[in-house]
């Protein structure tokens, strides 16, 4: 049983710790009085849209290079690691990854050289290939599920140079995101000029959509479960009838055969 | 100064804060993977000092639905170790900065593959707009209502995941049962025919004259 996993942020109410967003929007930045941006007025607005793109990109790169948030697993070359994702149809999955090579001299992981490639293989529940591509030593792969169910995502490392790794350890940092979390709120705020409250409501709307999707998926799963159970029920019923029939038929055959045998032997 | 201007004005500090926050952006991963028999799978995560992390895991299919799990800190101390558990939840505050390792082991099993789901969360959830320094006013009623709804929805999503895992487990069992019934019915038909045929043959052999044997006895 998954314990009541109160995911961090113990939001108990108004007296929230500073890790939550600020109150009124108009007051938030204006009263801060900090930053060189304060007081620039309308001219800053034009530069803002362009200016946000670069830091966002930097931020993503920082996240990847700093290994922020992604765990890693150790593999040896050619070893295939597979993960299973049970998702409804139409879900977008984005996997950010980064590979590193263990340097025994320095006793830590260094970023991989360019000749190490990651081969990503995604199979959908009907064993159809959704994705089968080779990627560089770091980057991201993405796919959209066509049918609901268990998808298999397999990764293995290949090096173009066929270098022999005797003790070669490689680390794959992996971060898979599905659906809702692929939205970047800073980007939304920049593009659509939304207030903080609007953003919060947007986040709630996305959460509710995610719940709705999961419930649809649940309906599909329950139907499959019911089909399997009914099929088992039918099979057991047919088998019971068939078995009785076979038993009786075999018994009759045995008796007839032995009777004719004994008659031939003149014992009866 | 209108609201547009003030929003524009707070862009730069927000950006700076965002860049700073990336350094300690909380991470988390929930994954399902298959653990073959006699195998061990380890995952590593870099955690800062003082950050709380939690690990939830559950065995979905395989054998007796149990797995061994242990968590080690960067110094090599085992901070959590459980054997043959079906599901558990573990939280810990990182005292040492470094790479923490958590491993699942199926080494006690000789022939059953296990499918294991785990959810590893590090740190707190980030605010949707990172302006941590701007908490001069308390949340408005609307905002705090939003926060409450957000937390409640997170609980709903969590419990949906729980039900999905449970259902996956049951469905795997049901499909297993279905295929077992097929194999068993075919197998038993064959066994029935073989047994009845050999019964008849054996009985007939009791009553056949053993001429070759008697000849040997007399000579």
From TrEMBL, chain A:
Gly residues: which segments have biased composition?
30-42
Q: Where in the cell is it found?
A: Endoplasmic reticulum membrane; Membrane
What keywords appear on the UniProt entry?
Endoplasmic reticulum, Membrane, Signal, Transmembrane, Transmembrane helix
* Topology with respect to the bilayer: Single-pass type I membrane protein
The annotated region (Disordered) lies at: 1-42
InterPro entries for the chain: Emp24-like (IPR015720), GOLD_dom (IPR009038)
The membrane-spanning stretches of this chain are 236-255
Q: Name one Pfam family in it.
A: EMP24_GP25L
GO CC terms on record?
endoplasmic reticulum membrane
GOLD domain: residues covered: 80-203
Highest taxon in the source lineage: Eukaryota
Q: Which SMART domains match?
A: EMP24_GP25L
Family note: Belongs to the EMP24/GP25L family.
Query: Under which name does UniProt file this protein?
Result: Transmembrane emp24 domain-containing protein 9-like
Q: What is the native source organism of this protein? A: Lipotes vexillifer
TrEMBL record, chain B:
Q: List locations, semicolon-separated.
A: Endoplasmic reticulum membrane; Endoplasmic reticulum-Golgi intermediate compartment membrane; Golgi apparatus, cis-Golgi network membrane; Membrane
SMART domains per record: EMP24_GP25L
Instruction: Identify the keywords attached in UniProt to this record, alphabetized.
Output: Endoplasmic reticulum, Membrane, Signal, Transmembrane, Transmembrane helix
Main localization, broad class = endoplasmic reticulum
Q: How does it sit in the membrane?
A: Single-pass type I membrane protein
Q: Which Pfam families match?
A: EMP24_GP25L
The membrane-spanning stretches of this chain are: 183-207
Gene Ontology CC:
endoplasmic reticulum membrane; endoplasmic reticulum-Golgi intermediate compartment membrane; Golgi apparatus
- May I ask which residue range the UniProt record assigns to the signal sequence? 1-29
Question: Entry's InterPro entries?
Answer: Emp24-like (IPR015720), GOLD_dom (IPR009038), GOLD_dom_sf (IPR036598)
Q: Per the database record, which ranges form the GOLD domain? A: 40-122
> Hey, which family's this protein in?
Belongs to the EMP24/GP25L family.
What this protein is called in its record is Transmembrane emp24 domain-containing protein 3
**Which species does this protein come from?**
Lipotes vexillifer (Yangtze river dolphin)
Instruction: Name the lineage.
Output: Eukaryota, Metazoa, Chordata, Craniata, Vertebrata
């Amino acid at each position: 049983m998954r314990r009541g996993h109160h995911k961090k942020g113990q939001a108990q109410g108004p007296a929230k710790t500073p890790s939550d967003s600020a109150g009124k929007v108009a007051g938030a930045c204006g009263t801060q009085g900090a930053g060189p941006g304060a007081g620039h007025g309308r001219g800053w607005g034009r530069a803002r849209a362009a200016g946000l793109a670069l830091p966002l990109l930097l931020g993503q790169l920082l996240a990847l290079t700093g290994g922020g948030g992604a765990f890693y697993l150790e593999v040896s070359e050619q070893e295939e690691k597979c993960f299973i994702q049970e998702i409804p149809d139409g879900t977008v999955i984005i996997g950010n990854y980064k590979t590193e090579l263990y340097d025994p001299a320095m006793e830590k992981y260094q970023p991989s050289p360019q000749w190490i490639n990651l081969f990503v293989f995604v199979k959908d529940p009907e064993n159809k290939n959704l994705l089968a591509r080779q990627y560089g030593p770091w980057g991201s792969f993405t796919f959209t599920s066509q049918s609901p169910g268990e998808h298999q995502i397999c990764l293995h490392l290949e090096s173009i140079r066929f270098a022999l790794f005797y003790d070669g350890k490689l680390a794959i940092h992996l971060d898979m995101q599905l659906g809702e979390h692929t939205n970047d709120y800073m980007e939304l705020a920049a593009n659509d000029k939304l207030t903080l409250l609007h953003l919060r409501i947007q986040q709630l709307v996305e959460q509710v959509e995610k719940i709705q999707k999961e419930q649809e998926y649940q309906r599909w799963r329950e139907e499959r479960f019911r089909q399997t159970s009914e099929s088992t029920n039918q099979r057991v019923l047919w088998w019971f009838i068939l078995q009785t029939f076979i038993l009786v038929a075999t018994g009759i055959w045995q008796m007839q055969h032995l009777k004719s045998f004994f008659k031939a032997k003149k014992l009866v | 100064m209108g609201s547009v201007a003030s929003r524009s004005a707070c862009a730069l500090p927000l950006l700076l804060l965002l860049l700073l926050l990336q350094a300690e952006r909380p991470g988390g991963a929930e994954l399902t993977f298959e653990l073959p028999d006699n195998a061990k799978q380890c995952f590593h995560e870099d955690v800062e000092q003082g950050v709380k992390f939690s690990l939830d895991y559950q065995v979905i299919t395989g054998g007796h639905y149990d797995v061994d799990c242990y968590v080690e800190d960067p110094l090599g101390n085992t901070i959590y170790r459980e054997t043959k558990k079906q599901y558990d939840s573990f939280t810990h505050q990182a005292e040492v900065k470094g790479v923490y390792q958590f491993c699942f082991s199926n080494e006690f099993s000789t022939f059953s593959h296990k499918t294991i789901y785990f959810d590893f969360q590090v740190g707190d959830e980030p605010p949707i707009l990172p302006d941590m320094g701007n908490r001069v006013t308390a949340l408005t009623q609307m905002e705090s209502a939003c926060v409450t709804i957000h937390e409640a929805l997170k609980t709903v999503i969590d419990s949906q995941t729980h039900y999905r895992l449970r259902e996956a487990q049951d469905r795997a069992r049901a499909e297993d049962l279905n295929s077992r019934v097929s194999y068993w019915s075919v197998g038993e038909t064959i066994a029935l025919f073989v047994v009845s045929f050999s019964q008849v043959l054996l009985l007939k052999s009791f009553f056949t004259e053993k001429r070759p044997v008697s000849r040997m006895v007399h000579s």
